[in-house]
Each structure stands twice: as C-alpha cells, then as structure tokens.
Design a protein that fits this description.
about 140 residues; single chain; mainly alpha; 4 helices
Length: about 140
Amino acid sequence: MNGMIEKSFHNLPKALFIYLPLFAFFLWVFHSKKKWWYFDHGIFTLHYFSFLLLTILLIFLLGKLAALTEIKVLNALLYLVMTVLITYSMGYFFIAHRRVYHAHGIVSLFVGIILLMINFFAFMFLLTGLALISFMMIH
C-alpha cells in the first residue's frame, strides 16, 4: 500500500502536466472570448501549476525534514509552516485569478469557486484513470 501511495505521489506532476490543457479550457469557458484567447489561459495555468508544484515540493521536503528530527518544537514549527503553505496555496488561486482577470471581488470569488469545483472533479477523474492504468500495468 505504501508503494502505491509513493508511486501516486511521484505521478502527481505527470497528472498535472496532462491536466494543463483541460484547466486552461475551463478558464476559457468562463471568461470573455473577445478579451482572452485560449493561450492566455494556458499561460495563467502554467503559472499557477508551477506555483503548485513548487509548493508541493516544499511541503514534501518539510515533511521529510520533520520525519528526520526528534525535536518536538521544531516538528511543531515545520508542521505549522506546512499548514500555512497548504492554506495559502488554496487561496492563491483566488488571488491570482482576481489579479489576472481583473474581475470584481465577489464575481471573481464566485467564478473561482465554480472553477475549483469543476476542476476538482475533473482532476479526480483523471487521477482515478491514471491509478487504474497503473494498477493494470502492475498485474
């Protein structure tokens, strides 16, 4: 089971890379076709996914560091930093979305929530498919 979780974690960047065009497509659907071209959404998606991958790397490294140390205060601090990074990475989409698309705060929040829900289900569908393919290749 641990091997499957480890393999899934290492396949996350590949899954995000496969998911890039679909994420950009959902952005394109929700924003003005006259003002924004599809590749504009692709650039935003590359920026956002790069941020996510760097944040995931940092959280992974902090988790490994926390596993190596026995100092409880240092572990508590590391887990606090990891919690802050996870929380900020969830909110970062809304910040970046508002700054790039210059939408009103409430509109940006509403569209952002809808986009995150759609993308969450679509990405889970992709991950399930990749897990099934990985499982079939094992046997």
